[in-house]
Structure formats: structure tokens, C-alpha cells
From TrEMBL:
Organismal lineage: Bacteria, Bacillati, Saganbacteria
Protein species of origin: candidate division WOR-1 bacterium RIFCSPHIGHO2_01_FULL_53_15
Protein name per its UniProtKB record: N-acetyl-gamma-glutamyl-phosphate reductase
Gene that encodes the chain: argC
Keywords: Amino-acid biosynthesis, Arginine biosynthesis, Cytoplasm, NADP, Oxidoreductase
Location of this chain's protein in the cell: Cytoplasm
PANTHER family: N-ACETYL-GAMMA-GLUTAMYL-PHOSPHATE REDUCTASE, CHLOROPLASTIC-RELATED, N-ACETYL-GAMMA-GLUTAMYL-PHOSPHATE REDUCTASE, CHLOROPLASTIC-RELATED-RELATED
Catalyzed reactions: N-acetyl-L-glutamate 5-semialdehyde + phosphate + NADP(+) = N-acetyl-L-glutamyl 5-phosphate + NADPH + H(+)
One Gene Ontology cellular component: cytoplasm
HAMAP family per the UniProt record, alphabetical: ArgC_type1
Recorded GO MF terms: N-acetyl-gamma-glutamyl-phosphate reductase activity; NAD binding; NADP+ binding
Active site residues per record: C152
Length: 347
């Protein structure tokens, strides 16, 4: 049994993390931290569905030092640029960290600054961090104490494109990712873009040429391919609560067929408990809602010579909290699927 603390418990990812850890047989949640406005409030007051499930009140990051001795591992679910200030003291205290934010997803400080506009300040720890996509970097994850949990768009996009990139089947400069996300991806704070009347029955692209997740996708696919590549990535907000659909287009180097592509994907992910490959149907975000699964389908368009990959995840689970628990399982020596075997509620 390990003891865990959650920083950022008041957000959607933090609340989803609580949901998962409450059913994890090897974890006890010891404390919760959230923004100053939540100080002293019971988490069940912020999220009434947790009534009777957990009785903890929220503390703030000011309380971190006095609470570190009580835990073995800390989950951080914070906006970028904040975790940098706290990860060193957590690691130096001998604790493990799974950072659900962006601060430890790049091992190169220059690239981090390029996309996030700030100096990292803790390069020593940056070099210790491992990008927490278990399907591709499991062996590295098991050896570290600091995980940079991937973003939601990058998880769907990288898992969808990796078999093509790794096997040299596509022109690397031809990758286009057209992705749609549920509104929970924008966080719980109310804004004009997430207002019901603005979002309902509407579909809108945003950050069309410079979304920060584009850098993450490029960086990791370049690692996988062994060559520097660029990706055209366009995200959209869809009028649904949760889920991501990433449609990936890439120019094939030679003619292929759907059967061979599907067989390639099944072989690539054959030992992965959370990746499912569809043969002859398109995945729907409803098929993964509430689960840690990624469902992928792949086809070849003979007219254009392009391979088209459809990849769906739940942005709050495989795209955030579920993947964080998957990484925790790996660095703590638990079976990887522990606490994560739920089946989607459908319809």
C-alpha cells in the first residue's frame, strides 16, 4: 500500500484521479491540495458525486512542506510553469512524482521554452523525467521517479501515428492531425468559449497554427522516427463533455491495403492492455468514455495515396488521470492495469 497526495484536486483531472484511486487496492489518498479559494472545503462539496466516498478537505500548496513526509508519491495537476517550483523539493524528499502538467514533458529546455515561453529553471530534474506514454516508453518509465504525463491530444495523436513513423511507412513531412476534444479539456473554470450557449451545437477550431501540444507531438514522433519532423496540428472544441478524436493523415511511401495496415497495428500493440485496434468500423468517443483505453482504426485511400488513422481516447482518463495511474503502477511495481479495468458506460 502506498500513500498518495494530489495537488490540483479541484480540477477535472484531479477529480478523475480521485475517482480512480478510490478503487485502487494499493493506494490510500492521504491529502488533497487545490487553489486558495478551495482551502478548507471538503472535496465532496466541490464534487457532490464524491459524497460518502472521501472525507478529505482541500489544503493549498503552502501546506506542501509539512505534508510531504506523509506520502510516498505526489500527483501534480497544475497549469504549466507551477510544478517547476515544487518538483525539486518533492524529489529531494525521496518521493515519486507524476506530473499531469506540461513542465516535464520535454527533456530539452530550449524546446520547452520555445513552446511555453519560460525558462525551465530545474534542468537537473528535467533530465531525470521520463515522458509517460507506457506503450512506447515503458522500460524507461519503470526506472524513474519523475513522470511527465503526456497531454491528451498528444496521447491520441502519438499512439495513432507511432506505428507508421516507427516502420517508415509515410513521408515524415506529410503528417496532419485534425483533432476534436470535449469541453472538459479546457478545464473547469468558466470562460466565454466554454459557456453553454457559445459551445452547444457548435464546432470551433482554435490555436490553429501554434497549439502547444503540437510541439509535444513533434518532439515525441521525432524521437520515435529518429528524424526531426514537423506536424500540422489543428485542435477543435466539440460540443461534448469528454473524449478526443484525432484523425491523422499521412502520405504513404508506397501503396498498401487496409488489411495489411490493420495487421501492422495489431502487431505493434499486441501486448498493450489499453490499446484496441478495430478492423472494419470507425471508433467513437463513446466507446472509450470513462476508460483508460485508446481505440484505433486505420485505412488507406487509394485515390490520394494517404493513410488515415482514427484514434479515440477519453481526455480525462487515458489523456490525463488514467494514464497517470498507469504510470504510477509502473514506477511502484504494481500490475499495470490495477484500478484501470473499467468498461465504458454505453450508450
Amino acid at each position: 500500500m502506498i500513500k498518495a497526495g494530489i495537488v490540483g484536486a479541484g480540477g477535472y483531472a484531479g477529480a478523475t484521479l480521485i475517482n480512480i484511486l478510490l478503487r485502487h487496492p494499493e493506494v490510500k489518498i492521504v491529502w488533497l491540495m487545490s487553489e486558495d479559494a478551495h482551502k478548507g472545503k471538503k472535496i465532496a462539496d466541490l464534487y457532490p458525486h464524491l459524497t460518502g466516498e472521501i472525507d478529505l478537505a482541500c489544503q493549498t500548496l503552502d501546506d506542501l512542506d509539512k505534508n510531504l513526509d506523509a506520502v510516498d508519491l505526489v500527483f501534480l495537476a497544475l497549469p504549466h510553469g507551477i510544478a517547476i517550483n515544487y518538483v525539486p523539493k518533492i524529489i529531494d524528499a525521496g518521493k515519486k512524482v507524476v506530473d499531469l502538467g506540461a513542465d516535464y514533458r520535454f527533456s530539452d529546455n530550449k524546446i520547452f521554452k520555445q513552446w511555453y515561453g519560460i525558462e525551465h529553471k530545474t534542468e537537473k530534474y528535467l533530465s531525470q523525467a521520463v515522458f509517460g506514454l507506457p506503450e512506447l516508453f515503458r522500460s524507461e518509465i519503470k526506472k524513474t521517479k519523475l513522470i511527465g504525463n503526456p497531454g491528451c491530444y498528444p496521447t491520441a495523436s502519438i499512439l495513432g501515428a507511432a506505428p507508421l513513423v516507427k516502420n517508415g511507412l509515410i513521408e515524415l513531412d506529410s503528417i496532419i492531425v485534425d483533432a476534436k476534444s470535449g469541453i472538459t479539456g479546457a478545464g473547469r473554470g468558466a470562460t466565454l468559449k466554454t459557456h453553454y450557449c457559445e459551445r452547444n451545437e457548435g464546432l470551433e477550431a482554435y490555436a490553429v497554427t501554434n497549439h502547444r501540444h503540437m510541439g509535444e507531438i513533434e518532439y515525441q514522433l521525432s524521437r520515435i522516427s529518429g528524424h526531426q519532423l514537423n506536424v500540422t496540428f489543428v485542435p477543435h472544441l466539440a460540443p461534448m463533455s469528454r473524449g478526443i478524436l484525432a484523425t491523422i493523415y499521412a502520405k504513404a511511401k508506397q501503396q498498401v491495403d487496409d488489411q495489411a495496415l490493420t495487421a501492422l497495428y495489431k502487431e505493434f500493440y499486441k501486448d498493450e492492455p489499453f490499446v484496441k485496434i478495430f478492423d472494419d468500423k470507425a471508433p467513437n468517443t463513446k466507446y472509450v468514455a470513462g476508460t483508460n483505453n485508446c481505440v484505433i482504426a486505420v485505412q488507406y485511400n487509394e485515390c490520394t495515396g494517404r493513410i488515415i488513422v482514427l484514434s479515440v481516447i477519453d481526455n480525462l482518463v487515458k489523456g490525463a488521470a488514467g494514464q497517470a495511474v498507469q504510470n504510477m503502477n509502473l514506477i511502484c511495481g504494481f500490475p499495470e492495469t490495477t484500478g484501470l479495468k473499467q468498461i465504458t458506460v454505453f450508450p
